[in-house]
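Example record for the data management plan.
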Amino acid sequence: MVQQDRSYKEKKVISIGTVSELTGLTLRQIRYYEERKLIHPHRNERGTRKYSFADVETLMDIANKREEGVQTTEILKEMRTKEKKQITEAQARKKMLEGQLNAQFRHRR
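Corresponding structural encoding:
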């Protein structure tokens, strides 16, 4: 169920106008955050941006941090640090699972 929720949140199906309505951000602000590499909308063959629900959540987080006075460079740095941590944790989980599987199959031989 969690995996299904994640794929649902990651689908890029929302227009920039709808994102603006949902977040209260202007179109210019949303485009600016894209320029600063804080969000990565999908662009179709006509160049139309499409956002996911995860992008909307990210934009809300960005807006809140900006209201607190946090600069976009700091937000990007924090996002990259968080991304690296998630990758490291995923790699650790994978190694642990591989170790468990190897131990289980070696034990059965």
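Summary line stored alongside the record: The radius of gyration is 19 Å.
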